[in-house]
Automatic annotation (TrEMBL):
Keyword field contains Transferase: yes
Protein name from the UniProt record: Glutathione S-transferase
Species of the source: Paracoccus aestuarii
Domain of life of the source: Bacteria
Domain named GST N-terminal: residues: 1-82
Lineage: Bacteria, Pseudomonadati, Pseudomonadota, Alphaproteobacteria, Rhodobacterales
InterPro entries assigned: Glutathione-S-Trfase_C_sf, Glutathione_S-Trfase_N, Thioredoxin-like_sf
One Pfam family matching this protein: GST_N_2
Gene Ontology molecular function terms on file: transferase activity
Keywords: Transferase
Amino acid sequence: MRLYWGSASPFVRKVMVTAHELGVQDSIERLDSAAHPVQRDNRIAAFNPLAKVPAAMTADGIALYDSRVICEYLDAQAGGGLFPAPGPLRWTALRRQALADGVLDAALLIRYERLARPEAQQSPGWIEAQSAKIADGLDAMAADLPASGCADIGAISYGCALGWLDFRFPDLDWRDGRGGLAAWQAEFDQRPAMAATRPFA
């Protein structure tokens, strides 16, 4: 599989953590990209018309995007394990993935507001509203922790979201008042798949 990749993307990281957990990381050819909210990278658009990463192409020519689809594809190809079978465990894992992705979406909107718009045109109200979503999402994560040792797609999504907040929002101090979530993240972050995929600019 070929994958348009970005070293700092939390959604790309989720794909790569999934690949490492499944032991298939060496089967992925990583393609450089320059994804940007305003300046489209048309190379990515060959795989994903939205020109967003991650975007993949399978060996038999199937285009896959976004991270949720690519992760489930990798899991299915490897025989399963990270996406539980239909039932309560699956719905919990998928809910956690959606929650973590939503926290990332709000954080990315703040980053894009600051990165892509001149300071005089930035909206404090917009940033405040997205910050509230992040705080509420983190509180929900803290109240819905995966079990110790769990490494399903919900846990992977939590770990990648929290790692990206540390990477891009070091002043957020999301651990304050969320000791259980902080302890969970500290343990999960020691997994080899997390260590092998740390974001960098």
